[in-house]
Amino acid sequence: MADPNRTAVVTGGARGIGKAIARKLAADGIQIVISDVMAGAAEAAAKEMEALGVRALAVAADVSRIGDVETLIRQTVREFGAVDFLVNNAGVTRDNLSLRMSEAEWDLVLGVNLKGTFLCSQAVAREMIKKRFGRIVNIASVSGIMGTAGQANYASSKAGVIALTKSMARELGSRNITVNAVAPGFILTEMTDKLPDSVKEAYVAQIPLKRAGTPEDVAEAVRFLISPAAQYITGTVLNVSGGLLI
Known about the structure:
The chain is α/β, with parallel strands linked by helices.
């Protein structure tokens, strides 16, 4: 368990995996900043965190825009004094076959998933260096390791997140800042819930544990990576896929 006197920023924290992560950390007494493009949903999620007995803040932000990211970190530091943990969870998909994928579909996914992770990490690293402490956890995907048909943009963005994780881990380690990634497999969220049952069944059939993952499965991995138990772990990609990727 992490020190409850710490503050965590969770991007894309208004729903799904991000909200589950925020809830898990709040249950440990960590102060929470919910960042999301959906302002109303972010406010509602922050209120849920407060109901768990912690201070919480909602900040509407598009992580692909540097001005929004700077505002997010500035408001967090003003409110809580520091950013101890950053969970780069914000992400989008625009699936299409490579031959049909538009430039706009490519740019949007790479902009949010990869550029957004970079901008947020860069901004918090400047704050963490001052304190000589920080934990950054990037939500990648097994798609970034194994590739997924129809998701060239998404898989490429997550492969980039993994490379970014390893590079920043090397750069920031001497300042007591760890940078790790979690690579979820097939997780039940609002996004995957829209898939046809036949597609869901096909995914589950490939998983040795024979079930889809839950947002809480991912949240537990994040909780571990920011805890003192993981203080000597950096540059690592923790596969949370039920064996889909071995």
